[in-house]
Amino acid sequence: MSPAPGLRLVLASTSARRLELLRQIGVEPDDITAPDVDETVKPGELARDVVRRLATAKRESVTARVSNAVVLAADTVVACGRRVLQKADDEATARRYLEALSGRRHRVLTGVAVCSPHGDVRERVVSTVVTVKRLTAVEIAWYLDSGEWQDKAGGYAIQGRFAAFVKSVNGSYSNVIGLPLAETVALLEGLGYAVTRPG
Question: Which domains are delineated in the chain?
Answer without folding.
Answer: 9-190 (3.90.950.10)
